[in-house]
TrEMBL record:
Residues 18-440 form the Glycosyl hydrolase family 13 catalytic domain. SUPFAM superfamilies: (Trans)glycosidases (SSF51445). It holds the Pfam family Alpha-amylase. The lineage of its organism: Bacteria, Bacillati, Actinomycetota, Actinomycetes, Micrococcales. It comes from the Bacteria. Signal peptide: none annotated. PANTHER family: ALPHA-AMYLASE FAMILY MEMBER, MALTOSE ALPHA-D-GLUCOSYLTRANSFERASE. It comes from Microbacterium helvum. SMART domains: Aamy. This is Alpha-amylase family protein.
Amino acid sequence: MKITDTSDLWFKSAIVYCLDVETFFDSDGDGSGDLQGLAQRIDYLAQLGVTCLWLMPFSPTPDRDDGYDITDYYGVDPRLGTHGDFVEVIRTARDRGMRVIVDLVVNHTSDRHPWFRKARRSIHSPYRDFYIWRDDAPPKGQKNPVFPGEADGVWTRDEVAGQWYQHSFYEHQPDLNIANPAVRDELARVIGFWLQLGVSGFRVDAVPFLLEMPPGAEVRDPHELLRDFRRFLQRRSSEAVLLGEVNLPYEQQIAYFGGDEVNELTMQFDFVGMQAFYLSLARHDPAPLVEALTSRPALPPDVQWANFLRNHDELTLDKLTDAEREEVFEAFAPDERQRVYGRGITRRLPPMLGDPRRIRMAYSLMFTLPGTPVLFYGEEIGMGENIDAPGRSAVRTPMQWTADKNGGFSVAPPSRLVARPPADGYAPEHVNAATQIEDRESLLHFFRDLASRYRISPELGWGRFEVIDQPAGAVLVHSLRADVGRTVAVHNFDEVPATTRFSLEDEPDGTCLVDLLGAERIPLDARKRVELEVAGYGYRWLRVSRPGDGRVS
């Protein structure tokens, strides 16, 4: 790769920041965040080092599933603003060097969507086949695999329609019939509409569910839908990406990139690596994470993994064994109320890990893993969850801007807020952006430092991953190597300090290691070896500086 390649495949060295407009900043005092409020906070995100905003759903919605129950794919929820406000956000973000991607939720609609309302009125309606129906009652005792305990089965009888409709999620979210060409045409128009307004791609929700075809569908290959999306996307915007939510084992995820053709999703979240990461944290042993990362299939240069530690859903642990999941539960969610669906945790990372050193080590490692880092709003200041909110809502609290009432999110009375901030040690008076901006030692400044060093080290997003042998069992030493250079990362998973020794035998004479998060230059000895003391939960970013490599730091 050349350094100029990073502008073509921009997503490989991006820093993605996910936020919900509704909970980010309220500009008009009605208790709900809005697009004008987001525009006022663009400079904060630019200073943080964000290069790509991922906006969760902001379309019109009954809001029974945090906006994922959509009634108009072309609209903006009036509570949040207008199309004009949205375009201003895009324009302002672009001016500050940020692209914007938006959620594409097309596996289902709200049951209040005009399509479904027309579909249920008559079996002869052209919209009837937009959804999936059956005449006979489904077998008794069916469970809902997505929301066990919250939703009953995946079929609900509609009395007006006189049939049962399928819903993989909640019963108020009927599944779209993707096998219907008319549905696919509508979804292409939705993609084209938002591209025309300036977005740089889409985060595609629940992709495996999207490709599930109804019984009897005459579709030779469901993946052709993703290929159609990708072809259409590239025709309309050569830079646009599809970031897919595909919670499957690695060997199955490859098909969603398009296999050898690489013509489907541009990026996929690494759920396997994320879950192995928490198992490694619980054990104070990097081995599970190393096993996951070394089993990742090799990818062509124009697609990418997306790394994350937390998102807007439960922290799912479904890819761990029952025994492994219980280890993580005991370490990070000892109270049954902190668990959901038998597979997930409803906490944010800082309350789970506790030790500030461990929190910083975790995020340092995420930024140095092969792939693109994805942050969930509030992570940069160490926000906690609202323990009084049920289920996944616990982590969907308002952004904490100041120590003032409502955390500076809104001037509305607390009773009118879309969600309540925490009231414990993670309340806004203890955790907020304004205080941390003034504190050079704060977590916020730590994130700014990570982002700035990451952005000048393209090998972190592009490089080939290598585990470096060394004797300390709790320490992970790995490198990422690309044509532009090489960086070695050192992370201690234990609270006990450790000594690590390793060799870089293939480096030329005169090579040294430059500490990117400090000021130290560490020479290799005559045998290309180095010995380092690593603090408890310590971390180092070490750029391999070869003679005459030309890089400033």
